Structures are given as C-alpha cells and as structure tokens.
Inverse folding.
C-alpha cells in the first residue's frame, strides 16, 4: 500500500501499489498535462481511500480530473472529508475535479462522504461535471457541490451499478447550490434502469442557459425524491 499522510504536495503524485491511502494532505497549485492533475492512480491501484485531504487550484491541460483520476475495472474508491476548490480542466474536456471509475458491481464502493467541491469553473464546450462517479454502489451523504460552472452536469454525474430492485445511487443530506451549466443539467443520474434516491437535499438556485434542453435533474432510471428542498432553479437564454 502507498500511504501519503500529513504532507503538502505541489507536484503531481502517481502511486502504483495495489492500495492507496491518502490522509491529512494538502495538494495545491499543481498543473499536469494528462489525467489527474494532482493525483493519478495507475491501472495497478485497486483500492483507493482519500480522507481529510484538500485540493486547491489543481488542474490539467488535457484528459479528465483536474485533481483526481482513479480507474480500475475491479476497484473500489472512497473519498471522505475531502475539500476541493478551484480544480478544473484547462481545455475542452471532461470532469473538472475528479474522475472515479470502479468495479461494476453492487458490492463495490464508489463513495463521496462529508465532502465539499466548490468553484470548479470552465465554460468551454464539452467540459462536464465537477466529478463523475462511474459504476459500483454510489453513496453521497453530506456532500456540498456549489458554485461550479461548466458546459453540462454542473453539480454531479452518476452512473451506478444497474439494479432495478435496489437503490445503487443515493444522494442524502447534500447541497447542490448556485451551480451553472452553460448548456444543461445540474444533477445527472445517467444509467438506464438503475434505481436512485435523493433524500433530504437542498437543490437551490442552479441555472442553465439552454431553455430547450434537459432540466435541473436528469434521470434514466427510477428516482425517488423525498424531504428535499428544490427551489429557484431556472433556465435562461443568456
């Protein structure tokens, strides 16, 4: 296992052991030219845990994940108490803060817990979402995704394991506030026939410029919304 603890990093880290554990670290003012501006996990990394760690002003000129890139077809990922501010892709490309792809199974964790992702801004065409969670059991309790701006999916993009009988993507006690999509959509729940829930969330003052495109929340599957405040979201042809 690669362990990064209680350090400040100003250059990109590329751990390659089976397990990666990052704790109490600060990644700041880092620029790279490929996937994962601050933290890139190679194909050998299967288990990825980041906790109590901040990413400030990290970016990449190409690829995905201005701060974090993790992709393993048998992997699992947990981000816990992570803070992101001003992380983005410089060019017209995808997923401003993090790109996370895990094993496509209900038992595989793809969690973002008690975390804040703010001010990830790039208005170029084909800039998508502050963070993308792909596959696995997606669980996001107490997440703040606010003041982000991109072309599409300005709050979060989720593509969970598909199980029409059980919830595999859960957004609870979270806030999606003051995000702006220059095309469309704040929250994207994008996998056919999956089951989703939004519970006890605030979805406030999110905007999109395209009146003719999708709304604030976009889902392909069965979505249950309960005990949530959804107010002052709008589309304007500005």
């Amino acid at each position: 296992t690669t362990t990064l603890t209680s350090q400040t990093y100003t250059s990109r880290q590329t751990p390659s052991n089976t397990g990666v554990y990052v704790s109490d670290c600060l990644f700041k003012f880092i620029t790279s030219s490929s996937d994962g501006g601050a933290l890139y996990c190679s194909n050998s990394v299967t288990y990825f845990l980041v906790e109590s760690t901040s990413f400030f002003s990290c970016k990449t000129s190409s690829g995905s994940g201005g701060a974090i890139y993790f992709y393993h077809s048998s992997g699992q990922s947990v981000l816990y108490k992570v803070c992101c501010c001003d992380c983005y892709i410089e060019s017209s490309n995808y997923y401003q803060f993090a790109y996370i792809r895990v094993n496509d199974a209900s038992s595989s964790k793809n969690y973002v817990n008690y975390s804040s992702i703010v001010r990830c801004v790039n208005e170029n065409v084909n800039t998508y979402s502050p963070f993308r969670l792909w596959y696995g059991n997606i669980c996001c309790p107490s997440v703040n995704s606010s003041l982000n701006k991109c072309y599409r999916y300005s709050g979060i993009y989720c593509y969970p394991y598909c199980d029409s009988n059980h919830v595999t993507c859960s957004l609870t006690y979270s806030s999606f506030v003051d995000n702006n999509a220059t095309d469309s959509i704040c929250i994207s729940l994008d996998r056919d026939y999956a089951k989703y829930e939004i519970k006890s969330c605030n979805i406030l003052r999110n905007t999109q410029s395209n009146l003719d495109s999708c709304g604030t929340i976009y889902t392909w599957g069965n979505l249950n919304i309960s005990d949530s405040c959804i107010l002052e979201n709008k589309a304007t042809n500005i």
Notes: The longest strand covers residues 47-56.
